[in-house]
Amino acid sequence: MGRYSRIATAASLFLLPMSVFAAGYGAAGCGLGSELMGSKPGSSQVFAATTNGTLGNQTFGITSGTLNCGDHGLIKKSKEREVFAQENYTSLVKEMAQGKGENLYTLASLYQCPAGNHQEFGAMVQAKFDSLVASDQTTSTELLSQLENQLTRHPTLASSCNIKQAAAN
User: Pick the residue with more confidence: 19 or 109?
Assistant: First the structure.
């Protein structure tokens, strides 16, 4: 019995640093288990770890910055916007000229604009279209750069769309 207690003690020493560095969650780490069980010490952390391990959601949470794993996931908002604009560039430019459309409203969502401001976003983009898409050679990266400049100057969208956070991500 002494041998098993020494093994248990040694194993707990390896787990100690995890609980010391935990930020807003218990020793089980972030994930769905931390959302369900919270950060209370004790047996609830066993259930939290079991939930995280069984469902495999901790990796997703860390990658996406969800499930109590913080808001600094590997997939940054700016990269998400870049990929979206590049993949949907042609239809996005057409919708920008019209001031409305599914891809345009999705882009507004990627800038964290509330749904109630999507039409205003579309109207601003339509009004500033010539500066956003200066030529046929304008790239999606240049388009997003110009769009962010226009958004920061807009009286309503600058505050409602979290442009400062968009530029940091």
Answer: 109
